[in-house]
Each structure stands twice: as C-alpha cells, then as structure tokens.
Specification:
Helix content is about 40%, strand content about 0%. The protein is mainly alpha-helical and about 100 residues long. The mean pLDDT is about 80.
Length: about 100
Amino acid sequence: VVPYIGNGEDAGMQADETKTIKAFTLRAGRKSWRESKDIAPSQSYVNVLLRGAKEFQLDQDYVKQLENIQCAQNVIGGGMAEKMLQFAELRNKEQ
C-alpha cells in the first residue's frame, strides 16, 4: 500500500511511493458471496471507508460519494466491518 496524505482536494497527487505501510483488507467471508452479484454494503463497511477517507484527507468529492452510498437494509446490526477492523487494530498492537 502506498501512503497518501491528502489535502482534501487533489486525490492521489501527494502519494509517497518510497514507503510502504501495513494495511487491512476486509472481504466477504464466504467464497460464494465474493463471486455472486454485487450487493449493497453494510453501513458498518461504509463507516470504515469513511473513517479512512477522512483520516487520510481524501478529496471531498470521494467522501461525498461514500456518504451517499445506499447501504443494505437487511444486515443484522448494521454489519461487522467496524468490529473486525477494531479487532485487527488490537491484534496489531499486541504484536
């Protein structure tokens, strides 16, 4: 992953390609889910994307697109992405 420090306007223009950083990737747990027709993301997953976009000051147009994503309404508890990210962050601190 290439580190990016944004200014909220110029997406990707300030990427530092000389460094690498650790990153977490979230994906559907079941292969059949990953290979099936796209479905709307959970609110929890969109919240993770928004957190990252704001933390790295990605351009506002992208943040607005994320904020306008229609989330799945049939996800129990709004999804698990935020909890999974919290777990990954805690596990990373322990290492």
